[in-house]
Amino acid sequence: MEKDEDKHEPIKELKLYKIASELLQTERAYVTRLHLLDQVFCAKLTEEAGKGTFPVEVVKGIFSNVGSIYTFHSQFLLPDLETRMSQWDSTPRIGDILAQLAPFLRMYAEYVKNFDSAMDLLKQWMERSAQLNAIIQDIQSQEVCGNLTLQHHMLEPVQRVPRYEMLLKDYLKKLPEDDPDRSQAEKSLNIISMAATHSNTAIRKMENLKKLMEIYEMLGGEEDIVNPSNELIKEGQILKLAARNTSSMERYLFLFNNMLLYCVPKFSLVGQRFTVRTRVGVEGMKVLETSNDDYPHTFQVSGKERTLELQASSEQDKEDWIKVSVLLTSKESNLVIAPRWIRDNEVTMCMKCKEPFNPLTRRRHHCRACGYVVCYKCSDYKASLRYDGNKLNKVCKDCYFILTGRVDAEEPVSGKKRGILEIEAAQVSGNSFLCGFLQYSTDRTKPCQRVWCVIPQHDALVLYLYGAPQDVKAQCTIPLLGYQVEDVQRSVDHPPSSFRLRQSKSVHYFTADTEEVKLRWLRVICKAVIGEMPECQTPDVGDVATSETLTTTKNTQITP
């Protein structure tokens, strides 16, 4: 038996070497494609846009953060793989390299999220601008493009992360259980799988918006359909039982996470195909199975707007409609302690719908159940609260759904995950390398904006920018890897406490309250831009006071 095992060892080692070699070879080819995208296509189009031929924002919209992706792969991942393969005889492993660098693959979520709109923007401007089209056609005709279009090359980053996942799974299959690289390889696979999930989540979100747009057109421009908070749960043909006779009429249902659309077909092959007859809100909607001797597979949908007697095409179809509808209306909990109120100046947007506040049309209101600051649309509800002697109190819609036994209309049945920006400031600030206020701008000629900046410990190479310390969604993120950190020349608009981050065509200007605060930020950022783990910095006194409240933000308990 020992001889057989010894005989198989060289074969396993050879297979591991082949997998590692394939990773290196495909990485070389991939970096060549990224160079073509960033340093050829993007660079030449940006140069032409600088002449005023077409807007530079068009070029940025097409290529998104491909520059950051190119920097990471060309300056970090590929060189590390090259070095490791040259030392394979003494260090035959790749798990440690991937475990260290895999977290940076999260930057792909931004690229993938932007991909569909980039394709649309590219098509639109190739038709609109002869100069833009001529530059692209000229590059595509060159040998370096391999007779492939720009669109084809732009698809490569979308497909790359799943490729890493596949190769690493194959590597682990061939890796002995007791191999010292197994723990690192498994750790890197977990991180890469999460990165693939980020990309897949972005893809699903874009697919959902595309589906909403299709429904919008089918309904003849029905308002409020194309909204990122809407998610289609189920759709299909149905029969409506008439109340006054025994006839049935063909109808069509669209069930969203917050409403049911009851539609009448228009029998048109193009354009509008349905007319919305009734909207039934999920709030308060009930779905019951009914019995009818003349018509099988029937059920009833009742809401405050209308009651519908419906017939499904089969027993299975009826059960599916009842199941998904009940899941949308079946959560029951109750509030047991008073919440801490979030201060008005700690948020810039509604903590539920994420719409920005303004003093005229979207003012701030407090939910008495969770303490969140919400807009009037999200707080126009009342529910009895146990901590207040079961008196009726003004609550947000989410708490209303919970306290009355209904599901949050924003929570889809399919368990949709948060977007990459939808991480609460309080959640990351309490466990960060550094957080605090900075003045921020991407254009020196325009006024700076005061933003709450965070470099979280779970995502050490990304800078999150929020409007305020309690905002539930970041305004943007900056992947720091590969950026150059520079001092800004002193002027009236830029005092000594200013600095900037520059990478290719992307420039971000920051100003701290003092030079001491600036130095604390630079100590962290200068580590992050070269891929090293920063050390935790002590925030200034004002930021300490703010940060200490962050960990107590979610002290409200809602239990069954």
Automatic annotation (TrEMBL):
FYVE-type domain ranges (all copies): 344-404
PH domain boundaries: 231-330, 431-530
GO molecular function terms listed in the Swiss-Prot or TrEMBL record: guanyl-nucleotide exchange factor activity; zinc ion binding
InterPro entries noted in UniProt: DBL_dom_sf, DH_dom, FGD1-4_PH2, FYVE_RhoGEF_PH, PH-like_dom_sf, PH_domain, SOS1_NGEF_PH, Znf_FYVE
Keywords: Cell projection, Cytoplasm, Cytoskeleton, Guanine-nucleotide releasing factor, Metal-binding, Phosphoprotein, Repeat, Zinc, Zinc-finger
Protein location: Cell projection; Cytoplasm, Cytoskeleton
Domain DH, chain residue ranges per copy: 15-202
Keyword RNA-binding: no
Alphabetical GO biological process terms: cytoskeleton organization; filopodium assembly
Chief location bin: other
Domain of life: Eukaryota
GO cellular component entries: cell projection; cytoplasm; cytoskeleton
Name of the molecule in the record: FYVE, RhoGEF and PH domain-containing protein 4-like
Origin organism lineage: Eukaryota, Metazoa, Chordata, Craniata, Vertebrata
Gene: LOC107590534
